[in-house]
Structure formats: C-alpha cells, structure tokens
Design goal:
Layout lengths: L4 E4 L9 H10 L4 E7 L11 H8 L5 E7 L7 H7 L3 E5 L6 H10 L3 E6 L17 E5 L14 H15 L4 E5 L7 H7 L3 E4 L1 H4 L4 H9 L1
Parallel strand pairs: 1-8, 2-3, 3-4, 4-5, 5-6, 6-7, 7-8
Length: 216
C-alpha cells in the first residue's frame, strides 16, 4: 500500500552535535527523521523539547516525525506543531482525551499518529485508526535506545495490516526499537512500511546498505 520509509532516530545521534546528525541523514538521501520526545514520567528518560525541533527546522527540510512519549501530550501538540513537526504521534496508554488530541493535531496542520507499547494490545488503538495517518507499534519498551527487539510485537503489526485492509484505511504502519540488519526483514515481512532505526543507523559503517535493506 505504501512505499517503505526508513526514518533514523535522532535520539541515537550525538546530542552535542544534532545538526551533524541531521546532515548525515540528508547525505544518505533520506526524507524522514524520527524525533523522540520524552518527559521523564511516561518513560524514565528526558530528551528534546520544542525549541530543539524549532532550531533543527531552520536548517532542514526533512520530514519531522515527532513521537511524543508524554503523560499529557494534549498540552504540547501545539508547541511542537508550531516548532515545525510534520507528523505528531501520541500514545494511547496515558489517561487524556486521545481522540480530541488527534483532531487537534490535524487542526494544527500536521499529520497524526497513534502509538502503543509492546504490552498494549492492538485493540487499544483500533478505535483511533480512522483518525490517524500512522500507527506506531513500539518494538521495545520506550525510554532508551539500544534495547533488544521484541519479536512478539510482529504479531501486532500483522493485526494492524489486517485492520487496515478490513476497514479500507490508509494509515502507515511504523515500528520503532531494535530495528537493525537482522530485524528489518522480519518487520517488512510482517507488513511494516515505516521503519525507525537509531543505533544501527548512526553506528553503521555503510548506512546506505541498511537503508537499501529496509526500502528495497
């Protein structure tokens, strides 16, 4: 349904030289960058804020795939939209008005995404699939890079593929966490069309080979 997209995760780049990480992504001919936003509450880590996104936007035309790992994303979607996000994904697990927040994201001119953790059933995001441009299945527990890929999530990817077909919906299916040379073929075979990779991309000697595996 969709041409595959490979989106390097900025979280795995050098945080002292984020502009260089962006430049590396652009040099490889990619169009997307995945930007993880963590609040230290929903996940046990802190990362970037709207001003980081705003600063990067001034120097890049990449598609900014912004992933909000926040307890209260409804309070921040406007800030990230105004900072330059192209797509904003929010998690289904916290207690907040998910549907209203997705509507708000689109009202701000961004594409919308719904994300869920490895332990969350696909049924939790099913009610929102007709409101999103992307469904993000986390293949590690969110919060830190470099974790092992959870193969059991591939079943949820296949469930999303089935729901997309059954309902005639156009959303992309993204996976994030532990995506590397070994797991990319598994993700593609399950039906994921948008692959986020951090450590494997930024540490790769030949990143174009990794990209070719994901998009070929």
């Amino acid at each position: 349904m969709h041409a595959p997209i490979f989106a390097p995760s900025l979280l795995a780049g050098n945080h002292a030289k984020l502009s260089e990480a962006i430049e590396k992504i652009q040099r490889t001919g990619l169009d997307w960058v995945h930007i993880d936003i963590m609040d230290g509450h929903f996940v046990p880590n802190l990362s970037f804020g709207p001003e980081t996104v705003r600063a990067l936007r001034k120097t890049s035309d990449l598609f900014f795939d912004v992933h909000l790992m926040l307890d209260n994303p409804q309070e921040y979607v406007q800030s990230f939209a105004e900072a330059g996000a192209d797509l904003i994904s929010i998690h289904v697990e916290p207690d907040y008005p998910v549907a209203d927040t997705l509507k708000r994201i689109r009202g701000l001119g961004c594409k919308s995404g719904i994300a869920f953790n490895p332990s969350t059933p696909t049924s939790a995001v099913e009610p929102f699939l007709d409101q999103v441009d992307l469904a993000l299945a986390m293949t590690v527990q969110p919060g830190f890079g470099g974790q092992a890929f959870k193969t059991e999530v591939l079943g949820k990817v296949r469930e999303l593929v089935g729901l997309r077909k059954a309902c005639g919906l156009p959303f992309r299916i993204e996976v994030d966490g532990g995506v590397d040379r070994k797991t990319i073929p598994l993700c593609r075979a399950a039906g994921a069309d948008t692959l986020v990779a951090g450590t494997s991309f930024f540490r790769a000697t030949h990143p174009r080979d990794l990209i070719g595996l994901a998009t070929g």
